[in-house]
Amino acid sequence: MVKIFVITYSTFGHINKVAESVVKGLEKAGAQVGRYQIAETLSDEILAKMHAAPKPDFPVIQASQLPEADGYLFGFPTRYGTTPAQVKAFFDATGGLWAKQALAGKSAGFFFSTASQHGGQEVTVLTSLPILAHHGIIYVPLGYPHPNLFTNEEVVGGSPWGSGTIANSDGSRQPTEKELELAELQGEKFAAVAAKLAA
């Protein structure tokens, strides 16, 4: 059974909602799932002023745990077209694993959240790929496996780079049924590819 870690950072909860569907797809495909979150670096005072959502009851991932899994699906919001500082701090802590190439040959994918349609969903993944390349981790994109990626009838987050959601600048928009369908499918398809790579 392939073992996949779903690792998220979420300020307002949108990413964690999408992650629920990602996990559903992984489990549907028979994967063993570990659910983790990335450590917060902001103080409780600042988070309160931001009206941030409460943190979920998932363990905080340590870089040393990454070799335990066959693959990873990382979920986080964009910050100016790249990862939030919290996610960057986590990846910066993987230097010891890089030195040993402990993650080489493992698989990874991404899902994401932006405030608007043009908020950088695709470029957020693009700017994250160098991290995978340096570790020798194999990037697994979503592709175009579902008609929800072709619809122009409504706003739908996600792209061939991964599933995603549009949150609005005030966080008022929640993940839609179409977005969650894409997230579940991403989990299912990622598990199949990760299993082949791990075999």
UniProtKB/TrEMBL annotation:
One of its GO terms (cellular component) is membrane. One of its GO terms (molecular function) is FMN binding. Residues 4-190 form the Flavodoxin-like domain. It comes from the Eukaryota. InterPro entries: Flavodoxin/NO_synth, Flavoprotein-like_sf, Flavoprotein_WrbA-like, FMN_Rdtase-like_dom. Pfam families: FMN_red (PF03358). Belongs to the WrbA family. This is Flavodoxin-like domain-containing protein. The lineage of its organism: Eukaryota, Fungi, Fungi incertae sedis, Zoopagomycota, Kickxellomycotina.
